[in-house]
Amino acid sequence: MRRGARVNVLLLLAVVLLAVLPVALGMGDHKAEPFAGADAEAETAITKIDPDYRPWFSPVYEPPSGEIESGLFALQAAVGAGVVAYCLGLWRGRRQGEARASAAGGGAADGTAGGLPGGTHDGAANDEAGSAGNGEARRAAGGSAGSLAGGEAHPAGGGSSSAGGADSGRV
Amino acid sequence: MHIAEGFLPPAHAIAWVAASAPFVVHGVRQLTREVREHPESTLLLGASGAFMFVLSALKLPSVTGSCSHPTGSGLGAVLFRPPVMAVLGTVTLLFQALLLAHGGLTTLGANVFSMAVVGPWAGYGVYRLARGLGARLEVAVFCAAFVADLGTYCVTSVQLALAFPDPVSGFLGALGKFGSIFAVTQVPLAVSEGLLTVLVVRLLLQSNAGELARLGLRAGVRGKAGAGAVAR
Fold first, then answer.
1. Of A36, A61, A94, the CB nearest to B67
2. What's A141's DSSP letter?
3. From CA B225, how far away is CA B229, in angstroms rounded?
4. Chain A nearest-CA residue for B211
5. Model confidence at A157, in pLDDT bands (50, 70, 90)?
6. Partners of A36 in the beta sheet?
7. Per-residue DSSP letter, B3
8. How many interchain CB pairs under 8 A, A with B?
9. Which of B46, B167, B178 sits opposite A83 (nearest CB)?
10. pLDDT surpassing 70 at residue A156
11. H/E segment holding residue A37
């Protein structure tokens, strides 16, 4: 695995460890309700400080069950992750498309090459090709570069693409 | 950090709305200007908002034995500056208040102030400071996300302590109580958010370096050889 990809995987691993360790080490065992939400604990603290306080407004809509609530939370995370992954994949595909186009055109991307496989989704593609393509040396990307499906968000999976490898060295 | 619906006295609720509103209005102006002048940034704006959506839905266990969630505001603050995050954060908080009964409409002003105003500004300030001192991009981004996350929860603690001072130990006593619930729990989560934000910035540098450079984010250290100059 290239160094850039390895660092990315290590970053992810560290996040997973930080989340798993408190549970694995039983750090919630001293509590009546381990790993409850801090927001709910704050509500309890408020009612301890001021036992007479009554919330003066209730939520306009409350999910009728824990299942529906967790489903909506999952939906929120899924929508967010989907958009992030779509963008990363799109940009990666564009890069690979540019790299392939510049390789086909003799190595010098002029930023207006038509028919970029992954790079013609909107008007921004040409601007980006211009700024990214002129400034830095492009490397030829072989194989199936450029297809959106192939443009994974995570470079760990893109071991065969030379464009991903070129990036890893720079970061 | 979501203060639950109805859990701030009306006077406090109104005061926090008044405090947040100018930032959100200014943010809407900045956001529309950014989109008008740089239509190509729409995607990255969407990705920044989406990152906030993911992270604020992730409830993670922490060393205190309770769960909390990151805010995701550091990334957008570094990329697009804090005013834009005031808008994206408000959208996220509205979604959670209206559909998840998480947070609330009466506490929206206070929650916007902590998560969408102070957090992004604190993170952005630390980012600029770190870059100015010659820190690597990754280090500066980590610090920004960490401070934006932790700062948000510190503000929430202050907001609650102001509204509910302890009958015996007063504001400071209450601040200690709310701080131990929110801020201490948040420390490892802020580390996680910092690491995740660095990961996303690395992936962005690998796939969309051109636009990041336009926004002033370049790999490396200011003044060093290669693409290390800081534009902004």
1. A36
2. -
3. 8
4. A128
5. very low
6. B66
7. P
8. 222
9. B46
10. no
11. strand A36-37
Interface test with B, best of A9, A17, A49 (most B CBs within 10 A): A49
What is the length of chain A? Answer: 171
Task: Identify which has the larger pLDDT, A105 or A57.
Answer: A57
B-chain residues near A46 (CB < 8 A): 7, 160, 164
Separation between Cα atoms, residue B143 and residue B146, nearest integer Å: 5
Number of C-alpha atoms within 13 angstroms, CB side, residue B229? 3
Q: Is the pLDDT of residue A74 over 50?
A: yes
Q: Mention every residue, 6+ apart, whose C-beta is less than 8 A from residue B25.
A: none
The amino acid sitting at A79 is: V
Q: Which amino acid is at B33?
A: R
**A147 three-class SS:** coil
Q: Is the model more confident about A78 or about A122?
A: A78
Q: Is A157 on the interface with B (CB under 8 A)?
A: no
Q: Does B57 contact chain A (CB < 8 Å)?
A: yes
Q: Averaged over A146-151, what is the pLDDT?
A: 40
Domain spans of chain A, in order of start:
1-57, 78-154
Task: Give the phi and the psi of residue B185 in degrees, each rounded to 5.
Answer: -55, -35
- From chain B, the residues in CB contact with A166 under 8 A are none
| B68 three-class SS | strand
SS3 content of chain B, % helix, strand, coil (to 5): 75, 5, 25
Domain B10-214 of CATH type 1.10.1760.20: yes
- Per the CB < 8 A criterion, the answer to whether B207 and B199 are in contact is no
Residue of B nearest to A124 (CA): B40
